[in-house]
Design a protein that fits this description.
The protein is an alpha+beta fold. The chain contains 7 helices and 13 strands. Strands 1, 2, 3, 4, 5, 6, 7, 8, 9, 10, 11, 12 and 13 form a 13-stranded antiparallel sheet that branches. A hairpin with a 2-residue loop joins strand 2 and strand 3. The chain is globular and about 50 Å long.
Length: 259
Amino acid sequence: MTDRLIRPSAGPADLPGPLSLDPTLDPRPLKSAFDRFGRLHVPGFLTADAAHHLHALLASERDWICSTIGGGVVADVPVEMIEGLAPADRAKVLALAHQEAARGFHYMFDTVRISTPIEKGGPLPDAWRQVAAFLNGPSFLGFVRSLTGDPRCVYVDAQATRYTAGHYLTEHDDEKPSAGRLYAYVLNLTPDWRTDWGGLLAFIDDDGHVAEAYRPSYNALNIFRVPQRHAVSFVAPFAGAPRLSITGWIRDAIPPGHA
C-alpha cells in the first residue's frame, strides 16, 4: 500500500438545501444524563430534509479513500485502486489488515477528509465545505456547549466515513493532548441498519466488557467525552448496506490554517 496517498474528492458541487437541527431538540433535559455517563445517543438530531441531503451526499460520493495501517504505517489508498485488484488480491489485503488488528490498535474503513484540506488550504467540493460550516456554526456548537456545559468547545473537525464488510476500528480512547480533543461525535446517516450487521459503537469498561453499545441509527448523534475506551465492531460480511457517517472531534482551539 502507498503511504499517505490522498486525493481531493470530486463530489457534488453543492447541497440542495440547508443543514439544520431539528427545532424541537432541546439539549437541556439531556445534560444530566451526559454529565453522569459522559456519553449520549441523541435520535432525530437533524431535520428530515437535512438528514436526507446528507445521506444523499454520502451515498453519491465516489472518491473514497481506504484508510488503514500497513506494517505499522498509516496508509491511505483510493478505493478504486483496491477495487481494481483481482478478487484474490483484495482478499489478501483484507486478511493482512485483520492479522495486524489481532495484535493491537488497528482500523480499516473508507473516508473523505473534510477538515484536513480546509485547514491546509487544499481543494474540497463546496458540499463538504457546507458540512464543515454547519458543524462549526452556532446551532451545532451551541447544542454541544449546552449539552456538555463546556464553553471550551470552539472547533469541530470532520471526516465522512464508510464502513463496509470487513471494516472495523479496534479499541482505543481518542486521547491526544496536543490536538485539544474534548469530545468525539458520530452523526449516523445509514437508513435501516440492523444490529447484527455489526458496526456498533461499543464503550468498554475497566474489566474489558462492553458497558454500552450504540447501533448506528439513522439521523442520530452519538457524542462522548474524551478520553473514553471504545471501538467500532467488525462489520459482518452479510451487512446489507454501507455504514455511513460524519465523525470527528470537538476541540478547544481553532487550527491556525482554518478559514
